[in-house]
Predict the 3D structure of the following.
Amino acid sequence: MTLIHLRSETTSFIAATDGDALPVVLHWGARLPDAVSAEELEATLRAPVPHCSMDEPLARRIVPLAVDRWRLRDGLRGSAPDGTRFAPCFRTTALSHDDASLRLGAHDATAGLDLSLTYTMHPDGLLQIGAALTNVGPGPYAVAALESSVPLPMDAVEVLDLTGRWCRERTPQRLPLGMGSWVRESYEGRPSHDGPLALCVGDPGFGFRAGRVWAVHLAWSGDCVSFAERSPGGFAQLGAGEMFAPGEMILAPGETYDAPDLLAAYSARGLDGISAAFHGFVRSRPSHPTTPRKVLLNTWEAVYFDHRLEVLTELADAAAEAGVERFVLDDGWFGSRRNDTKGLGDWVVSQEVWPDGLGPLIDHVRSRGMDFGIWVEPEMANPDSDLLREHPDWMLAVEGRDPLLARHQQVIDLANEECFAHILGRLDALLSDNAIAFVKWDDNRGLTDAAHEGRAAAHGQTIALYRLFDTLRERHPDVEFETCASGGGRVDLGILARTDRLWASDTIDAIERQQINLWTSLVVPPELIGQHIGGPHAHTTGRTSPFPLRVASAVFGHLGIEWNLATLTPAQMTMVKTAVEWYKAHRGFLHSGDVVRIDDATRPVVVHGVVARDRREAIFSYAQIGTNVTEFPGLLRLDGLDPAATYRVEPVMLGEIPGTQQKAGPAWWSAGGADISGAVLMDLGLSLPALHPEQALVIHLTAK
């Protein structure tokens, strides 16, 4: 027996060889000593053999299969069309490993299948699992599922994942994990607004800063399934995989299916430890942005479809005055697109609106020191468009009927090579002919009744979408891309491997965004989350919010503005300029430190912050989203600090002083700051001002 021990500072994954059978997984979770032995683990972990069971202890192999009498989900499910080859039994053919990686090849001569696995333990504790299946048999093989999973201890009994809807994405939900399965499925050809983002299982009552937690995320932008399971047999597991419609994934002899990567994280210190693992992994990827995240203005809620040069140049002038660095022209610049019922898919500049092309606007924007961005939705088309009138066969549909309309549009078939080449050509020309530095890429409907050449098409559409992104990025390496899907309908690390920013929700209501931003950052680092300062009146909810809350809900992420700055009073413009200047001064820190979130069960608040890796600086946001039962809010314990350090604690006034319900504020607030030890701040806390509901306070701490 050979022990395979992948490890980071926080996490161990341990498996053991078992002859030429697939390795047995012994542990995934807390870091174990380097010197741990196979004999020690065998003595500790070997299960008894109960009555009315197999004659040997049940082993959880690296790919759980029915042949091992595995009682939970099999890692591979499929068969030949005639029902044979349904019960594979793999033998290891190649195996190599070191402290951070494992590569395994396996073969089943009877089923005619080759299996390839890669396991990588990243420095921040994230375990990346890749799997590929090759059909080496004489006939086709239909893959029903190839899902990666990791073991759980039986005492991990509470589930937390996320659900939601349009403009209310990533709402947390908790439930006990009993005997059986908790399964989350997404069918829209994307993870969807109600997708779980991360499926987390842990100790009862685990929170942001306490409790053991195990979590998985699937880096895939198509149909997917996540699951957590426990069985009376004494085993539990957590996993995810791509989900197929019947007949969607049929491998011809020699063909290979590469499954999406499963990303798994363990934390002994609550959900913040899970985020640290994911954030470290994302920030280490070569595609991760390395330049400061530019302040942008998006024109949508400022002007909607009112694309007149004089209106937009006036808006650009106001944006430049406010310190904006990027001006993004949203929907309405192309074809006959004067509203959302027609023109989508016709990616040529409208001669009606822009008789001289986009050049005059782009030149004006660039003359004011900003770069230029543009909105597109390349996967869709209105039936009332030149594209679908000329090429109705490019609609992604079952032959003989059109899918139901959604937002007056249909999905086009990017797996159709002619369609793909047309869209690529239009976008390539747009980026080649204009000085465009940024593309907001939208996706405003999920797949319905989608077929390519008569077969289910979600997988092929996702692969084609990735190819389109990859080709455009190769041809235009200096262009940044934002992913949007009616806001947060496609938030995953598959699409974020190809984009530089995500639009987490179509709502910029500051109250809604407090929760949406907080839970999106469970997996996604804040510098990739677009967060905008909107006008006082939120278009999506009708709520009116004060400026301090709107700013505090935006400056921790990738800051943008979605407000008609040309209509601001001088006092309002001064507030915006102050906020933008503060963001620019602190964005390098905000986008590199550790995210810290505070559990608070007694007050209607959202508290989060960023703490430097060396703990010499921290910035926290305290948002009062409702009224307190008590007359004064009490103390706020700030976590993640250095208890031995003394911090200068100061309130940050981002353009306007938050409204309060008090005759006098706490001493540190009234004095404009105070020197307080990290131990006091962490163990006792900081007295808070009695904020009005829907107000927010930003607190800056600097070690002396």
Q: What stands out?
A: The first strand starts at residue 3 and ends at 7. The mean pLDDT is 96. The CA atoms of residues 460 and 643 lie 53 Å apart. DSSP finds 13 helices and 40 strands in the chain.
